[in-house]
Structure formats: C-alpha cells, structure tokens
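Researcher: Next entry in the queue.
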Amino acid sequence: MSFSDPDAVAQYADNLVRQVPGVHALHQMTHVLLAEHVPPQGRVLVLGAGGGMELKAFAEASPSWRFTGVDPSAEMLGLAKRVLGVELSARVEMIEGYIDSTPDTAFDGATCLLTLHFLSAEDRLETLCALRRRLKPGAPLIIAHHSVPSDPLEKHRWFQRWAAFVAARGPVGETAAARADSIASRLPTLLPEQEVAMLEEAGFERPDLFYAALSFRGWVAYAGDAHG
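Model: Structure for this entry, 228 residues:
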C-alpha cells in the first residue's frame, strides 16, 4: 500500500487485521515482553508507529508508560493520533521521520513491528544499531515482520501460503499467486538465521523467537552494553 494515499491509510487497520495472522495477539505478546523489563513509569520507543494500533494496545495495558512514536508518513501518524484519541495521545510524542530523527533518549524498551522487511540489509543493520544506541543496557527490543527461507522455491511457497490466508479472509483484487509473486519480488526479506545474526551484530543479546505465523516471524532481544 501507499502510506501517503488517504484512501489506503483509511483502510490500513482493516487490511492489517486481514493480512497479519493474529495481529492483535502479536501486540498483546509484545506488551508482555516489554512489561518484563519496562518499569511502571518507563518510556518506550515505537519505530514504525503509523496507524497507532500497537501504541493503543500498549498505552491501554500500561497506563503510566510514555511513548515516542516514529514514522516517516505524516498521514499514518495522523491516523495514529485518531486511533489513540486525546487522552492516550497525551502520553505519546509523535515524530515524523526515521530512527535518526529520534532523540538520543535512553529508552526502557522499543518495538519495530511490520517495518524492517521494507529495508535493505544495510539499512536494516543501521536501524538496529541506532535502536541499540537509544536503549538502556538490558532493555528489550521486539521486532516482527516477514522472514522466509532464502531458497527461491521455499520463499515463494511461504508467500503463497500467506497470500492464500489473506485471500480466504476476503477479496483482495488479485489472485493469491499474483500477490505472492508481488510480495516476494518487492520485499528484501532475510532468512530467520540472518535476522538473529543481525540482531547480535547490532549489539543485542539473547535473541529469542516468540512469534511465527506463516511467513511472519518475531523476536525479542536485549540491548547489550554500549555498542558502536
């Protein structure tokens, strides 16, 4: 989708629920992992915060946390503000931009959900390193996105399964096979082993898989001592 197209942005929440298996449960699990380490008055960085769904879930579950939400799309940040409403928005600092637009605050935790699969390996490593620099030692980072085997046949098979799941939940304007071909060719996905290695290279420790849903994978890892 175009994250600057008003019509696409208006349909974002419905599309996310249809396209990401168990997305609400993903947000709940992410909060559980954050809450293990983020203190009652903690501050959480949400990278790729446009849409506001995870921000709303976290803010409702932990009413004393404060948040910094970062996203390059002004339209998506506007949607996030509407989803949050006035009361929850008061606890969220919204920043239009990328990770380098974020203050060098020592955050107690961070998330980056359904975002990193849009980035090249080089940009992804730089983003992870920048996230590490903004986290207190031991603070959790939770990531989740498409991650599939590197073998072309296996990669395509997993995206076909995902596309069939999406198609079964309502019309999408294209066949499952065409959708699988499109997403496989456009996203610079990494295989799961590369995801773990990149987290460790960026200075994160103890990466653990906590979410697996067709072509999606999610990990939690913890910021090591000062890195880079």
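Model: The chain has nine helices and seven strands.
Researcher: Noted, moving on.
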